[in-house]
Structure formats: C-alpha cells, structure tokens
Amino acid sequence: MNDLFSLERGDAPLMISIPHLGTHIPESLRGLYTDVALTVADTDWHLDRLLYAFARSLGARVSRYVIDLNRPPNDESLYPRQTTTSLCPTETFRGAPLYRDGCAPDADERTRRVATYWQPYHDTLRDELKRLRAQHRNVLLWEAHSIASVLPRLFDGKLPDLNIGTQDGRTAAPSVQDVVQHAAAAGPFTWIANGRFKGGFITRHFGTPHTACMRYNWRCVNPAT
Questions:
Q1: Among candidate residues 9, 121, 130, 7, the one with its CA nearest the CA of residue 67
Q2: Of 211 and 216, which is predicted with more confidence?
Q3: Which portions of this protein are annotated as coiled-coil regions (predicted)?
Q4: Where are the beta strands (DSSP E) in 47-198?
C-alpha cells in the first residue's frame, strides 16, 4: 500500500480495479474545496469491504474529487451529449460546487494531477495485467463501482441494482458476457447490460478481447438518499 492506492497481488486470472474507492484529499489541496466536497459523498463506498473482500484488487486512495482515474487524461467526454463528470470534476453528482470561488484547477494543475495521481495508477494496472497474462492464457479485468440509484442530473428514473458495461460488447468476448449476464439473471437483483453505463476509460482502454484481456464494468447501486 502507498499514499495513492492499495494493491493486493494474486495469481488468479482476475484483476479487480476500484478507481473511485478513495476518500483522501491531500492536505495541500483541502483549503481549495467547499465543505460539501470534503464529505467526498460521491465515493464508490464499501466495495473493498463488502463485495470484493474475497479477491485481490487495485484500489485508489485519493478521492475522485481530486482526479477521476476512470477518465481519459485529455478529458475527452466518454458520453457525448450527456451530463457526466470530468477528469478533475468541479461539481458533485448533484451539481453542487466542489471548489471555493476562484480555486478550481487550471490546465497546469490538471496536468500535475495526471502525472502525480492518474499515471501511477494506470502504470500499475498495466504492469499487473502484463504479469498475469504471462501466467494465464486469458485474464479478466473487473472494474468495480457503486453509485446512488437516483441521480436526476446524470440519468432519468432509477438505476437497476446491477449495471454491466462492456462498451456494447467491444471489451469482452461474447461467451464471457453471456456467463456474466446469465449469473445476473439468475439472482434476485434487477440488472441491465450496456444501459446508462457502458464502461469508463479503463474499460475502453484495457478491454481488448483479441489480446485475451477482457474487461467488465460492474456497477452496483446504493440506496438513494
């Protein structure tokens, strides 16, 4: 474990990435944020302790309010024409400002955060996948998230309990997607595949079935408050 992320290494052909697990805002930045921001309310809560305690994983420690590790470094929108969050977000999911007046990060600060926080996480993820693929013919990268079930600013209505994303089938082999969807259908929870959430940058960048690295975005919902 270090100040940026925790890494538990295993030898199974499974890598779990939890990029929005972190709650830490560095002391040098805390004075820039609003009181609302310091509650880090949009964290993907509890995933390491409740859902994935059985597995080896890579989990962020720095809050997504500092930098979103699941966005491209050039901040290109993953969902054009839809409301979404950015690389260095300036608003909460509900639209409340994260920064005090005049304190939002400029281009130089965003570049610094990419180098300081974003790049080490992605370098580690790449290296771990390379290590596992040297041991196994196929490796599954499982991207774990949780989110409130009702967020009118981001989507209409209420999300299903389980939200599976493979960028419309481009980041996982059909046979693997069939197994995951069959398991979801056999359980007690509502679910959807490639609905509002199809997978973020990590899904789209690392999910390459033709090179035997299949990538799933699996988003569980928290009860709306």
A1: 121
A2: 216
A3: none
A4: 57-60, 139-148, 162-165, 191-193
Domains of the chain, by residue range, sit at 5-222
The Cα–Cα gap between 213 and 194 comes to 19
Name the CA radius of gyration of the chain, rounded. 17
Distances in whole angstroms, Cα of residue 201 to Cα of each of 86, 102, 208, 223 = 11, 29, 13, 25
User: For residue 142, how far is the Cα from the chain centroid?
Assistant: 10
Residue type, 17: S
Which of 76-85, 157-166, 200-209 has the largest mean confidence? 157-166
pLDDT tens, residue by residue, 163-189: 999 999 988 888 888 999 999 999 999
State the sign of the Cα–Cα–Cα–Cα dihedral 9, 45, 75, 201: positive
The reported pTM is 0.90
| CATH 3.40.630.40 is the classification of domain 5-222 | yes
User: Which residue from 200, 209, 207 is spatially nearest to 175, judged by alpha carbons?
Assistant: 209
Rounded CA-CA distance 219/82 in Å is 18
The tens digit of pLDDT for each residue in 29-41 reads: 999 999 999 999 9
d(CA 68, CA 77): 12
Q: Is the pLDDT of residue 225 over 60?
A: no
Name the residue with tokens 């419309």: 168
